[in-house]
């Protein structure tokens, strides 16, 4: 199975900050990498797919990059409503696997 | 509006069974692949199973193989997960999720249900 490792696990940041979350795959997954946002008590919601494609309706302050084994999710100008846990997920091969999550909180 | 509503969760005995359902609305259910994903505090998000739009192709996480069975009834716009031989490690919130891919790009889960909790305990 492909292991997905996110860092950091917890990320305190201030409103207006630029925030970067990284995700590393245990083997190359090309660009088969997706990002999800999960707010407390809610189901995950897709933000980015194919490493850098913004899902319809997602604010443009979110962006993604990377390929191979190293990926990142960037939030420009952090907003209060971005408080959530963020997960990466690979769809390169079965079983699809998720990172352990990055909990983003406001300082 | 796309909606996925899971049901069937609850308390199950170790070694017991549960059948989860996911009722879909707001889209052409028979045209989409579907998945089950679960979430536990300890292991996070875990993909469990996939089923093709016709139901003819299925895939499972290795740890589910032989215990869980995914199926669908397109005429009823419904997805199912039959879970047998349950253990405490199956305690989780279970989500159904629609699968999507664009022109061979990454496969992702574009809509999720609200989840149904399953507790396995004596």
Topology at a glance:
The complex is a heterodimer of chains A (107) and B (122).
Chain A: E1 4-7, E2 10-13, E3 19-25, E4 33-38, E5 45-49, E6 53-54, E7 62-67, E8 70-75, E9 84-90, E10 97-98, E11 102-106
Parallel strand pairs in A: 2-11
Antiparallel strand pairs in A: 1-3, 3-8, 4-5, 4-9, 5-6, 7-8, 9-10, 9-11
Chain B: E1 3-7, E2 10-12, E3 18-25, E4 34-40, E5 44-51, E6 58-60, E7 68-73, E8 78-83, E9 92-100, E10 108-112, E11 116-120
Parallel strand pairs in B: 2-11
Antiparallel strand pairs in B: 1-3, 3-8, 4-5, 4-9, 5-6, 7-8, 9-10, 9-11
Q: What features would you highlight for this structure?
A:
heterodimer; A: 107 residues; mainly beta; seven-stranded mixed sheet; four-stranded antiparallel sheet; 50% strand; B: 122 residues; 11 strands; 53% strand; globular
Describe this structure in words.
The complex is a heterodimer of chains A (107) and B (122). By secondary structure, chain A is mostly beta strands. Chain A has strands at 4-7, 10-13, 19-25, 33-38, 45-49, 53-54, 62-67, 70-75, 84-90, 97-98, 102-106. Chain A is built from no helices and 11 strands. In chain A, strands 2, 4, 5, 6, 9, 10 and 11 form a 7-stranded mixed sheet that branches. The mean pLDDT of chain A is 97. Chain B is mostly beta strands and 122 residues long. Chain B starts with a strand and ends with a strand. The model of chain B has no long low-confidence stretch (mean pLDDT 95). The interface between A and B is medium-sized, with 27 and 23 residues.
């Amino acid at each position: 199975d492909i292991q997905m490792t996110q860092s950091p696990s917890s990320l305190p940041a201030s409103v207006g900050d630029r925030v970067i979350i990284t995700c590393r795959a245990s083997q190359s997954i090309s660009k088969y990498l997706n990002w999800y946002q999960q707010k407390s008590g809610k189901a995950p919601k897709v933000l980015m797919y194919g490493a850098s494609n913004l899902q319809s309706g997602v604010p443009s302050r979110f962006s993604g990059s990377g390929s191979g084994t190293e990926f990142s999710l960037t939030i420009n100008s952090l907003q209060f409503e971005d408080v959530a846990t963020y997960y990466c997920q690979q769809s390169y091969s079965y079983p699809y696997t998720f990172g352990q999550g990055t909990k983003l909180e406001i300082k | 509006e796309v909606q996925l509503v899971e049901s069937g969760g609850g308390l199950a005995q170790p070694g017991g069974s549960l059948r989860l359902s996911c009722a879909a609305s707001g889209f052409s259910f028979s045209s989409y692949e579907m998945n089950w994903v679960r979430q536990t505090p300890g292991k996070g998000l875990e993909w469990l199973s996939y089923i093709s739009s016709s139901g003819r192709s299925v895939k499972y996480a290795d740890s589910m193989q032989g215990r869980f069975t995914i199926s669908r009834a397109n005429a009823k716009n419904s997805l199912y997960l039959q879970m047998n031989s349950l253990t405490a490690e199956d305690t989780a919130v279970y989500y159904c999720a629609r699968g999507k891919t664009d022109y061979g790009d990454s496969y992702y889960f574009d809509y999720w249900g609200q989840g149904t909790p399953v507790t396995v305990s004596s």
